Amino acid sequence: RIHLIPGFIDSEQADWVFEQLLQDIPWGQRTHIRQEVRFEEPRLTSWYGELPYTYSRITMQPNPNWHPLLTMLKERIEEFTGYTFNSLLCNLYRNEKDSVDWHSDDEASLGKNPVIASLSFGATRTFEMRKKPSLEENGDYTYVQRLKIPLDHGTLLLMEGATQEDWQHRVPKEYHSRDARINLTFRIIYPERDGIRK
Fold it and tell me: Which parts of the sequence belong to the Fe2OG dioxygenase domain (predicted)?
């Protein structure tokens, strides 16, 4: 289940929010290791929340010191959606070369059927989704259903239900010049005990 709300933040306010977050967020670039090869994540990130968050074998340390602007955006989204979020992964795509590869937000700490509210500022980038293949397809994505959603300045995308279980998503690199884009993904993180949600 996905809901798209264009203009959730009006363009004038979105311009101001974008500039504030660009300069105030402590952006950092993290290093991944895949098959013993180290590589820099092709975007900058920052984490907010009382609990750590681990994805792709990278752990973001707890950071309870929310920027007031992020708290305001969180409260506005909570009022609109009826959900309460306790964590936020911020992503900065500096240009068309920055991206995130196919994945599902299905870490154990997110619980079953996680709700993710994704708020975009800056340049429009394409958010692609693809349905996970059935067992009979043996991991072959050739003929699966695909969606392409342009996420504009100030747009809110809400992912609910079995979206993470049944689909993958990505923001691909682009061939044409793109200005910077900030994406805020509000989440609900649960404490883990030995990898099992409490």
Answer: 84-190
